[in-house]
């Protein structure tokens, strides 16, 4: 549904996009992550047609940028773009008219995003989280086959965050391709999203959570029934927290084997697998 190849965009002396590639299939939620300034928002703005790239290819449903491609896109920008003096319903109506959706779609979507009680409130009077959800609703109305959501849950409380994630999941289950930008990594686990990691204007890692984290080190956590000294190679990779040794490891069974071989029998053993936070941290190390 979305095919992007080799996007480049320069702002003055700064290269915001430097060969950005991303393909997203129908029904897929692609979590786009990366540090501030990695180019995520610029990428989304190029796909929507708001920003013109210097070079590169953007195809939406097989069509290059233009009116036909734009009609397939639902977009919730990071900087909210709602009419503050208009109510939630009126804002949704505007976007519904553009998308050719009816009144029913407005009430259904408002219910799904827990906005029913504020449909007649001007968006300028809403809380930050309510505004975010209204923005998401304007993106989702009319069931566009490509959804671009740029940090849609910033400022949302856990309950409304849950409602938004459910709505995103439902759109993907109905066949939409979703690009979901966030700094809040647990959401991408909840959404069972594939991942695209952006750095310095390009996607440097792309795949499932499992594919991207399996080669990262995990942690072997062991505790003993009294003070113990770890063998030297393990000690260099270990820290202690609450009397427990936490050993950074790429091979937990082998490290446990060396403990046992040294005559050290733990009373508790736990293995923590690498997760998205570790993936993020590994990128920080590379950036430094
Ligand atoms: N309109 C603009 N004019 C000049 N520079 C810009 C403009 N928009 C973005 N940039 C620069 O391009 C780079 C990429 O910015 P972008 O907003 O795309 O990153 P991001 O990954 O979305 O960051 P964040 O996580 O902070 O939202 C940054 O160095 C930014 O300063």
TrEMBL record:
Entry GO CC: plasma membrane
Similarity remark: Belongs to the ABC transporter superfamily.
The name this protein goes by in its record: ABC transporter ATP-binding protein
Organism: Amycolatopsis acidicola
Membrane association type: Peripheral membrane protein
Key words of the record: Antibiotic resistance, ATP-binding, Nucleotide-binding, Transport
Transcription in keyword set: no
Matching PROSITE patterns: ABC_TRANSPORTER_2
Any single GO BP term: response to antibiotic
ABC transporter domain boundaries: 2-225
The keyword Electron transport appears for this protein: no
GO MF assignments: ATP binding; ATP hydrolysis activity
Protein location: Cell membrane
């Amino acid at each position: 549904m979305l095919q992007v190849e080799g996007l480049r965009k320069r702002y003055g002396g700064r290269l915001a996009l430097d060969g950005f590639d991303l393909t997203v299939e129908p029904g897929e939620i692609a979590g786009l992550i990366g540090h501030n300034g990695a180019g995520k928002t610029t990428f989304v703005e190029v796909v929507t047609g708001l920003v013109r790239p210097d070079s590169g290819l953007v195809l939406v449903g097989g069509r290059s940028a233009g009116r036909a491609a734009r009609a397939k896109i639902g977009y919730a920008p990071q900087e909210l773009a709602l009419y503050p003096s208009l109510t939630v319903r009126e804002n949704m109506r505007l976007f519904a008219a553009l998308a050719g959706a009816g009144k029913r779609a407005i009430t259904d979507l408002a219910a799904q995003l827990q906005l029913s009680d504020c449909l007649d409130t001007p968006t300028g009077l809403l809380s930050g989280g309510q505004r975010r959800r209204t923005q998401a609703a304007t993106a989702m109305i009319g069931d566009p086959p490509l959804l671009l959501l740029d940090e849609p849950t910033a400022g949302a409380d856990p309950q409304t965050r849950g409602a938004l994630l459910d709505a995103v999941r439902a759109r993907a289950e109905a066949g939409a391709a979703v690009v979901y930008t966030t700094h809040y990594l647990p959401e991408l686990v909840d959404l069972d999203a594939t991942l695209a990691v952006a750095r310095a204007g390009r996607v440097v890692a792309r795949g499932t959570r499992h594919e991207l984290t399996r080669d990262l080190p995990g942690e072997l956590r062991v505790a003993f029934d009294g003070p113990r000294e770890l063998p030297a190679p393990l000690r260099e990779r270990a820290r202690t927290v609450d009397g427990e040794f936490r050993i950074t490891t790429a091979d937990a069974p082998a490290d446990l084997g060396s403990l046992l071989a040294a005559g050290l029998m733990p009373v508790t053993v736990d293995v923590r697998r690498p997760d998205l936070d570790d993936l993020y941290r590994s990128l920080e190390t590379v950036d430094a």
